[in-house]
Design goal:
The protein has 309 residues and is an alpha/beta fold. Helix content is 35%, strand content 19%. The chain has helices at 27-38, 57-63, 102-112, 126-141, 172-184, 189-202, 249-264, 284-302; strands spanning 2-8, 43-45, 51-54, 66-73, 90-96, 118-123, 146-151, 204-209, 228-231, 242-245, 273-277. Strands 2-3-5-4-6-7 form a six-stranded mixed sheet, with helices on both faces. The chain has a five-stranded mixed sheet with strand order 10-9-8-1-11. The longest helix is centred in the last third of the chain and has 19 residues, at 284-302.
Length: 309
Amino acid sequence: VIFNTWDVAYVRDMAAAKKWLNDAEDVVEEMVEGVMAAHAGQLVKLKGYNVLLHRNIEVIKAGQVTILSGGGSGHEPAHAGYVGDGMISGAILGGVFASPSIDSVLAAIRAAAGPHGVLLVVKNYTGDRINFGQAALIAQTEGIRVATVIVADDCALPEGKGITGGRGVAGTVLVHKVAGAAAQAGLALEAVAAEATNAAETVKTLGVAMTTCTVPGSAPSGRLDAETIEIGLGIHGEPGMKQSPLRKCDELVDEMITVINGRAKLVAGDDVAVMINNLGGTPTMELYLVARKAVLAVAALTGTPPARV
């Protein structure tokens, strides 16, 4: 069982969010250029698409299942930051908070496909499911072996609520890791997909937002005032479980663990990994306060500290 807590905070004023931008319309293209400049020896860009592949993709696809993931930009280091040995083989980038196109996903599948097949790790959002799903169907008609795993780790919504159900959020990183390890170990596509599915069904997460997110070039939302937080606010600003006044760290972590454990149902002796994710907006000092309380809360449920934090 894997836990994650995250917190959203963006620099803002009363008029518009302050961001390092040239032109909002160019932010994804320029970000990709920056990623490639910083990691030129680790990634290759697929010509004509915002698809970033492992530098050794030709060797990898000849010897093992390849793993692709992706989604809207604006959630970095997702997803290009997770391309590497024992992780995903490529990342497909959409616009800011927008799913990558069917054409982009299909181009990535074709480039990454080898004799062992391709696993798609897809977060549970309507656009992602449609576009990845359609691309997978087209690839299969071309004779490419493709399997798909859907991640829906968010505990903010009641189970079964909404059209698609729980959202796919930070727990996807751990699914990448499990799938990547299984593929690197030489498991067949069906076995890699089974390991990833088990991880996706096990991981449970919840977020707390101090402020709302802001799309580059747009004015910030007034959804949360200076005294209000939102438990379970979505990573694109979707409604969460509830709003409340800001409370002490320990109180917030206790509530988050309670909600998460309503799904995880931990018992004495369970091995637990805790992931604390700040989504780029919370100081490291504060994250360690969250870690301190999360470790204590998990140990109270299982009888032992988490195996990994």
